Amino acid sequence: MCLSPAQCRAARALIGWSRDDLSSASKIAEATIADFEAGSFFPAERALQNIKQSLEDAGVLFIPENGGGAGVRLAKSESASIDTDETETVQYEEYLKNDAPPGAGG
């Protein structure tokens, strides 16, 4: 199986989708999604692929079972960037004073 019920629930939560949102995107009945997420029904592989593809298109990455358990995460958007400029150092006065007792070493 390409998708677990827990991954489906977690993926929807990550992107803030309701079951109705996923139903609209995947063209799978909302009741089918609800039953799948509850673990009481497992749709055909094609339906699971449609659900997974819709979630991936919305920015979810699926993490396969790799010894630590299967999971989900948000894809890093191309517009998101982390400031890695390390040329500026900021020092706070309260961290500059030596408050260790004499002989503390280090």
From TrEMBL:
Regions annotated as coiled coil: none
Region (Disordered): 74-106
UniProt-recorded Gene Ontology molecular function terms: DNA binding
InterPro entries: Cro/C1-type_HTH, Lambda_DNA-bd_dom_sf
Listed CDD domains: HTH_XRE (cd00093)
Name this polypeptide is given: XRE family transcriptional regulator
Organism the protein comes from: Rhizobium vallis
